[in-house]
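Worked problem 6 (solution included).
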Amino acid sequence: MLADLQSIAGRAAERNYAVAAFNVFGFEDASAVVRAAELLEAPVILAANVPAIRHMPVHLMGPLLRGIAERSSVPVCVHLDHGGDFHTVMQAVRHGFSSVMYDGSQLPFEENVRRTREIAKAAHAFGVSVEAEIGSVGYSDPALNMKHELSDPEETARFVDETGIDAVAVSVGTVHRMERQGAAIDFARLEAIQEKVSVPLVIHGASGVPDEIFERLVSTRVGKINIGTALRMSFGEALREELRRQPEEYDRVRLFAGPMAAVQETAARKIRLLGCGGRGR
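Solution. The predicted structure is:
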């Protein structure tokens, strides 16, 4: 069933679990993620980021993911991840996404507020939830030249109040595209933020979070946790093994069977770590 971010992340933030938002690129991995969620009776978020909608344009990706969501037995949110401008975000709104993220985190604070507020007002008019980022979660690749700045609690509260967003992504120690689980979460900062903010908090770059940290993380007001690299690594490793095992196989469907089973297994493991199993009944 199709769900919106505000309802599923809000419920999670209040009840000490978090909903996993998995970055997906098409039918196969989105279906694998939803299968994992259905087996665990868990809500889940299918997140299409900018590289995904470059690969499959938003007017195709939106209806595809929405169709998968509507046919699922559990709540599934269809989410635009890291939309960088008004046009991209509103394209997602028009083409079936039930929630969107606008990422103005590389901008000066006042400009981030202005653009986020404009997008939130427009998206809310269509009944679509809005996430935005304050501070800036960096990237593991320094060549990208992206700012990495921890979120300030006072500034985060002001940002939420002035924009009217439904969920706020905060920077508390994670880094995008980490291939090792070495992220150190600043829990003192996270707790200071949650004391001042009433909307659900969002953690990006969680593939780098050690498994044993998730239990503490979901005991806070974090309601949504983004995971992308872990799925890509599972897919890539399994595909390489499949090609070694079947060097003369050329059928795409057959070659993808093993890798998608690996994606499903990884998604299921992360859902369990977030305490989300059984929450989609």
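Discussion: The two ends are 11 Å apart (CA to CA).
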